[in-house]
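Protocol step 4 of 5: obtain the predicted structure for the target chain.
Materials: sequence only (see below). No template structures provided, no constraints applied. The aim of this step is simply to have a reference model before the mutagenesis design in step 5. Sequence pasted as it appears in the construct record:
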Amino acid sequence: MAPTIFAGNPVLLRELRAGLRNARAFALMALYVAILGAVVTAGFPANEQIDLRSDGGAKGQDLFWSLVWGQILLVLALIPALSTGALAQERERQTLEPLLLTPLSPLQIVWGKAGGVLSLVGLLLLASLPLTSLCFLLGGVSPGMLIAAYAAILGLAVFTTGFGLYCAARWPGATRAMMACYALLPVAVALVLVFLPLGALFSGLCVLAMLVYGLLQGWKKGEKSAFARKMGPLYGKLVYLLAFLLIVGLLATMFYDRNVGLIVVGVGFVMSYFVLAAQWGLLQTARELMIRSDPEAPMRQKVADFKADWQSAVAAPAPPSVYTPTPQTQGEWAALSTAATPAPAPAKAAKTPKSSDSYGKAPFLSDKLNPIFARELRSGLLGKFEYLFRFSYVITILSEVGLLAFLFYSLYEPDALAWDNRNFEALFAFWGRLHLALLMVFGAWFGARAIAPEREGQTLSQLFTIPMLPRHIITGKLAAVLAFTFYVLVLALPLALLLAMTGLVPWAMAGRFLIVETVLAVVAAAWGIYCSFHCASVRNAMSWALGGVAILLVAHLLVFPFWETLKLMGLAKSSTGAALFASVLPMPLVFPMHLLPTSTAVSWPVAPALLVYATLASLLVWVTARNFQKLSHEA
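Step 4 output (structure tokens):
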């Protein structure tokens, strides 16, 4: 039997087996449940007395909707990376073209990939059911609300998976496809939500028509039964009465039973609408796979390109060739032989002029620099500048422009906004946390692409033939990553100094912000390089680097709920320890008084915390250099 979209699809079976055998799925599930557990711990009224008669289940509904929105945000944050990586790994392994040569259609292939991603999402949703069931203890939540909410989340996950697969087919690079998906996903979700009422009504009618069609087909198959022979001519007309009674009964049940109405609307209308939108996106994905060839170059070409890039980066440029026509007559040959006769050497050799820099036509890098650093910096500035500018610099510059626009509006319109310096300090703290998050994410992103492409392209062994020490190679990579990272940091320097000079924020606040950002940027870059060396592919390196930075950025939100859980279990008494631990995390460290509660506003001095982070960055670089040296000796 020929395979359908799901039944007997070998791509789906392979994705299911690979997903369940991978430890990443279980780690992701643990992190997912831990974040939702922190939300429940923070929102559950453990020390309050609730009267359900007067409260009306308001506490339960608040906690329920907090969990629903938390799961929606987690789904939108996780699925783009999973879906784009599911198709990008076929390009990385150069197995996409053989997969397209199988008897499977492109739509079956992309639905198999989507099914593998959705299986993991389904496990995450099932793992969160025990936490969501706690809302029933507080009242105000019905089983129909639970099923409808989970159906809507699953439908949104199906649509996001289809959109991620389309981005992976449209943009060949794994990183570029993932960043494009994250950048365009809010626009796609907004467009889908705009047409949600009409689309859900249309898809619900289609589902109802499919039910009636299924009833007609089943009724037609029973024409040879004993009941059909007894009914005679009435058997063919009775099906229309049954279809009418089915529709009326369903509508009446939805009207009189609120749970049934919510389930029908959530599953039959909302979820079916998202699935219909995902089907259209997967059709476009299949079309992109057919019209776009795999852009990956063969391995010999990659090695040749690597050697050519290396020679162009470290070798002096060849002198320009001058075209000389071929001699035609005997006189021209005689003149050519006379010109080729070497002239007598002068009595005193002229002084050799000082050699100029050899990097490019317009020299901007010295020959005395680390060759690895010069190569990475030169290729990054010339080849990836537009790519980096789109995804990192634009976001940072837009955040600064927004803050400056608000500043000018508040200065020139003092009657419209009654903001004082204290309020603007809070706004600057919010912008500073956003900029710190962007800086650490981009630092880890740049670091993850330092060594992993060499290993993935099987050109890492080429670095071992360079007459340089392993620590110098790692130092050059780290210096290039820090150069790209500090481009983002330098964008915040003029704004922080401007706000300090105008008196809107204290100098101590601006100075602490710049110093802490510098140290944490080095930590993020060192962590990215560590992941880039110890991961076999760029996709895994990006996952570990960005995941570690994301956990570090949100860790301060999980400390106090976890500590409260320990207090409920009798394992902890005071919150001072939690406050001290939270104060050394990145967000409270840059602006401590704006994040910690007033009752636990204690923190370590900033100098020891920065020393710990600097030591951690040095340790990561040292371990990477040592392992690189071991690998070079083994090779």
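Step 4 remarks: Residues 10-48+55-194+274-298 form one domain. The radius of gyration is 32 Å.
Proceed to step 5.
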